[in-house]
Amino acid sequence: MDVFRSAILQPRPPESFALQLVQQVIKPQKQTKLAQDENQLLENILRTLLQELVSSAVQSGEQIMQYGQSIDDGGSTQGLIPRLLDIVLYLCEKEHIEGGMIFQLLEDLTEMSTMRNCKDIFGYIESKQDVLGKLELFARGKLVMLRTCNQLLRRLSKANDVVFCGRILMFLAHFFPLSERSAVNIKGVFNTSNETKYEKDPPDGISIDFNFYKTFWSLQEHFCNPASLTLAPTKWQKFMTSLMVVLSTFEAQPLSDEDGDANNLEEEAANFSIKYLTSSKLMGLELKDSSFRRHVLVQCLILFDYLKAPGKSEKDMPSESMKEEIMSCEERVKKLLEMTPPKGSDFLNKIEHILEREKNWVWWKRDGCPAFEKQPIEKKVIQDGAKKRRLKWRLGNKELSQLWKWADQNPNALTDPQRVRTPAITEYWKPLADDMDPSAGIEAEYHHKNNRVYCWKGLRFSARQDLDGFSRFTDHGIEGVVPLELLPPDVRSKYQAKPNDRSKRAKKEEAKGASHQSEENQIATPASEIDEGIKADLEASGTPMDTDATAATGSMSQGGSPTADEHQKQSSDTDGQEAAGQSEPDADVEAGMVDGEAEMEADTEVDLDAVG
């Protein structure tokens, strides 16, 4: 310990003697890095030395960070404690000792110091922020640093030490990465302990309406915990009644440009207080203060923005009547902000921009705070004169080659029946059915029915698989196409056909079917008559054909050859048959029978000649 005490008195930089100092005190097994037990021994020595230095500074009456500071011709030197911290920080940065040792010393130092000295200690921490934030140190000491800052915030007064609290919060925001979950209020818990106390009984000689005074300050109870408004309807009605009174008062007493210029915001920032001054005697002056009005109106916008934020559970979502009241009140608040000088419209635009960006943070937290930092791409320096080699890809480019490698057996992947398939109607319309469920609390602007491509594909699927649902599109629009079994009972009743409508529709279909059947019968009657006529002709013409065949067989069986007369008769018979076959289908049955008899007589003559 004496070796360290004498070393911190040296004005030389730590890198010139720090490692030799540790080797002299600890005598480690390795020359450049300490083992676990050696780190623990060194930490105990340093914590004991730090405690002695703080005790000596308190006894001398000097500030801790200035204790042991000397002034010479070259200027002032560092105090003993900052000098000791610099040596330890250098050893941690070079990984000669355990990286979390510097954070442990800083935590001990803040616990042993008063709040006045803690400001100087925190100034040292801010000056070394870049070194403390390096990856090799941050991973070892981030939890210790977070615990140290939280302990400081608990010890500070939120009303009197506003600037110091802000410095700590700004340091944490820069020290931790943007996606660090420990710095985010994941559950969205409200600080309900931040109560605004005001007078309950009217004092003597008050010049304002004390009922308005109580109504005005009672709004802070609801601003403190907005989630309670959706759980109890009576609270919401009480809040809206009080808010209407306050907004009406602001509208009845507009501020002029002179009132806005009288309140210099730069001078007000120097005397800013985080808590309101709730004395009833100041109520009249506060109503004329433009910045005071802005604070209250911005609180209203923040509360409305929280209630409208999507993604909450069903019990936390506002009802339809509440949404309408929120919209009307929000318009009144924005008009009042725009009317409040100075530069009311510019101030309103900035507030709207901040609230819009806040929605992105809300969604990010509800998605589980995914990391969105991307590592920088290393740029490779190409030497002068070297030709850039062009990569050759098997399938022509990088994307196609990677796509080919994604599947182990590409032929099977390409022929997989699940690769391209038409989804079932119930599967496809399930998202829209969830949107139509009032209990889901999904706002209309986020419904799937606003997606044109989704609706177009769904209509094509319904036209192929569900004609009954497709027919409801004419009466109910795209929501009527959704299968009824997917809808809750209260919603399903809107799209089900009534019994009277069904009976009327059935009667219409029966009437259409009867008329259609009569038309078919009328068309079928002449066709049957034609078929009977054709059948009779075929029967009449079938006899001579058989007779000719018999005669020809008989003549051939006798072994004789036909004579010239027989040839003439056969040719005439053939011509007669062709003439009979060319008769029109609509000829009378009697005419067909007469022709058949004549042909039969001619055939008989032919047979007789053949026999003779």
UniProtKB/TrEMBL annotation:
Species annotation: Ziziphus jujuba (Chinese jujube)
UniProt-recorded name of the protein: THO complex subunit 1 isoform X2
Gene that encodes it: LOC107428685
Alphabetical list of InterPro entries matching this protein: THO_THOC1
Biased composition (Basic and acidic residues): 499-519
PANTHER family, per the entry: HPR1 (PTHR13265:SF0), THO COMPLEX SUBUNIT 1 (PTHR13265)
Pfam families (UniProt xref): efThoc1
Acidic residues bias spans: 596-612
Compositional bias per record (Polar residues), positions renumbered to this chain: 550-561
Region (Disordered): 492-612
